[in-house]
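Journal club prep, shared notes

We agreed each person brings one worked example of a sequence with its structure written out as tokens. Mine is Iron(III)-transport system permease protein sfuB. I'm keeping it raw so we can talk through how to read the token line rather than staring at a rendered picture. Sequence first:
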Amino acid sequence: MSIVTTSTVSSTPMISKRMVVDWLGIAPFLIFALLFLILPTIYLIAGAFLTPEGSLTLKNIGDLFTKSIWDSYWISIKVSVASSLGGALIGFYLAWALVMGGLPPWVRHTFLTFSGVASNFAGVPLAFAFIATIGRLGLVTLLMRDWLGFNLYSTGFNLYSFVGLTITYMYFQIPLMVLIITPALDGMKKEWREAASILGATNGQYWLMVALPILWPSLLGTTLLLFANAFGAIATAIALTGSSLNIIPIQLYAQIRGDVLHNANLGYAMALGMIVITGISNLIYIIMRMRAERWQK
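Then the structure, token by token:
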């Protein structure tokens, strides 16, 4: 009896010591999240309801519905929706080809590696790459003009417009879709297709009645994640279009950086609006992902 008691007592310090080590392991992440995510968010929320003098006010929230700011939100939403839908559609078919298209394994590994790099390629380098490729004097633009006699810009295309920014955003939206949707396609069980075939279902019926209903939460959730990813992007837009396409992140930057439009508290309110929009899309994404994981168990 005494041996059991000694063993139990001696194991308690070991458990406590291990818990301390575990918490120390995640401490850098918790500190990083606190300093660069939680505290700035609290600061923004508080600042959105204050005047520059520190008094409580709702004027900053009301100013969000002025025409210029409302138009900026609307342009950002349209660019985000267009790039997320295009990225989701093209990315899904690419992922489908990699997982179910019978391609050699090395093609899948190479493409997924490239997608991991391309999904993080944004900002000034991405804007410069598109300007050098399909800008007015870009390589592809000149090749099509000189070799094919086709002037891309005579069709009304403009890289520095809504369409151009959407296409540029899709460069990192498509590989991000591939990375996220590939595990969902991997989770599709062969038994489901075999059972559908035994019951006489065609390939189209299988996708319409079995595969797509199962993949739908993953598809919708990932599309919302792409929307949030595009909605907060600023470096690519400001390097590509400057202020010609006044999306909300650019107007927020103008409010906070201290130029003629300087009104930090209004900028905090604009940031709060962006947090609400992206927060809703991310929340729906988490719900959809949980539902998809439950379907595929």
